[in-house]
Amino acid sequence: MTDQMHRITLASRPDGPPTADNFKMETGPVPTPGEGEVLVRVHYMSLDPYMRGRMDDAKSYAAPVPIGGTMEGGAVGEVIASNSDAFKPGDFAFGMFGWATHGVQPAKMLRKVDPAHGPITASLGVLGMPGFTGYHGLTEIGRPKAGETLVVAAATGPVGSMVGQVAKSMGLRTVGIAGGADKCKMAVETFGFDACLDHRAYDDAKALREALKAECPKGIDIYFENVGGKVLEAVMPMMNPHGRIPICGMIAWYNAGGLGDGANAPLTAPKLWRTILVNFLSVQGFIISNHWNQFPAFLSEIGPKVASGEIKVVEDVAEGLENAPQAFIGLLQGKNMGKQIVKVI
What we know:
The protein is of the alpha/beta class.
């Protein structure tokens, strides 16, 4: 075991899209676990859009990363020292270890991962926070019914692909929106969407809406909101009465800074509120960390479907902790193909 730990810290807060200068690689001693704590050597770490919000000094549901602090994130790795009966060296564990080669967490904050049940990277995506976000938002807030039409953007990401596959299995027409022809092909051929539109092929929301009308002839019953921006503008006038909109993210506005406060959002509040009112829409935001009590049930249902191949998984793996910043910048630009992961060792 090396006695050196590498981590990536927040060097400065971005003004708009993050750049490489906002991050700094630092080296220090490997931390020592205290009473009830576990030391893990990270094998893989997750990159997720919410991390952009943590880079801003803005009020949110979680505190921002301080300047000089380790960038936040979930990771999975091997236990190399434990002061808890719940874990022993050689076990694999998932926890919020951040962008680092090693991490220490209380055992009660960790989840054991069994490599015998499939790739440990699944704990970062399809069987982790993103997959659970898609599943919970669709089933609990979207309240899907067979024969309805669902639209979800970022359709090939870990959230959108879960939403689309579960909705399709429940008998809904599933229409994805993604950035690029290759992603749209993946949405249909790999994840089983009925159709997928390339939002980059349309100059504005009106043009995208016209294309959506052809794929959603009965209107839209569920819009799973994880993007905002042009897609939201295109979808809102097409929502059917009593439609449902689970909201888990707004990636199109994150790079505006201040959790989207500086975004240019032409969809004004009066128009948005009127659409919600006259169509009796149910719009509910949710943060998945408030629903972890339901995570075991999710794993019990979806885990076997992942193992059998019924739920498809696509991962985009960047090599090396030092390449995490560039991979994250690319994620926010939609350059990833599937769940973005960094292989640390």
